[in-house]
Structure prediction request, 402 residues.
Amino acid sequence: MLMNAFRIAVTEIFRNLTRSMLTALGILIGVAAVIAMVGLGQGATAAIEGDLEAMGNNLIFVTPGVSQRGPSPRAQAPPLTVRDAEAIRQQVSHVVAVTPVANAAATLVYGDEEVDTTVNGGGLDWFAVADWEVVEGRKPTQGEMISGAAVCVLGDTVREALFGGEAALGAKIRVNKMSCEVIGLTEVKGTNTMGMEQDDFVFVPIATAHRRLLGNTDVSSILVSADHTSNIDSVTQETESLLRQRRNIASNTSDNFSVSDTREMAEMIRGITNILTAFLGAVAGVSLLVGGIGIMNIMLVSVTERTREIGIRMAIGALERDVLTQFLVEAGLLSAMGGGLGVAMGLLGSWGGAKLMDVPFVFNMPVTLGALAFSAVVGVVFGWYPARKAARMEPIDALRHT
Prediction:
């Protein structure tokens, strides 16, 4: 019986192929949109997690103030110091590298060229902890770090803006009012997934930043690298305990600093992207319901057009369930046809979007199969009323229809 119903359904669909394709278009768009949105969302998540992993799975951030919702007390919190970083290096176990960081906005000038950028003042460990490699020239020496020498290492964006194709090593540039010798150039990293230009900076020894640019000894953050991912929690706990002692925080008082790591950042970003992906998928799923209404409309038209055919079938012995099955199979086949084409279009759109956004293409088998199955279910559900209407016709009344 099912095979016969399937054969009749295929015949009817191809008899009015244009109308059938237009009917399935709503399902096609819905399935394609769901698959494309979910795929791009998961691709963006994977790309952001990759950027965080590139920063180092063992990286820990220490900042003054407390990260929280609402008004932040960060401005009232006492700043961190270089001595805090040294204390962490000497007293916290499982630490392989520590660097204080002092950031400042600056204008760099070379000849007639001028560029606004960010100055990163840090220790020698900054290159290892922040995962930067000097590909031309050298890093500052320990003596230059201690003395606060006027030397700097340029990111590629700054180098290109100031020097273009000229040689940069050994050149003297002006950083605000300070004359600085370019001693090194870092590798090119480009823009990350979050749209941040990673090469737009200049590095100077932190003593240089304090004495010649900032006029204070404040540290905006401390970067800590643990020796292994399994030791991140213990390093975090020891760091928190040490800083509470150094900052004279009473036992019944909250921290006035925060310690976080890349795992927490990845989890937060994953949560945000999952919510956005689910929301976009739900919005796209509305198209499936619209497509289902289109199927119901066309099936009602089909029942009206084939009333006499239905009467003839029932007059020669077709049962109510036979007619019901025939129209349900036809509705489900229409919907599945749209769903199948929607899967192909959705995967193609997800792949193309991933290329344009420069994120990984993610093929999610459960979502793909789920969207396809849901599209068939939508067809059956919305085809039920027309099929039931056809099955309950009186043969005599149907035969009188012209």
Q: What stands out?
A: Residues 262-305 form the longest helix (44 residues).
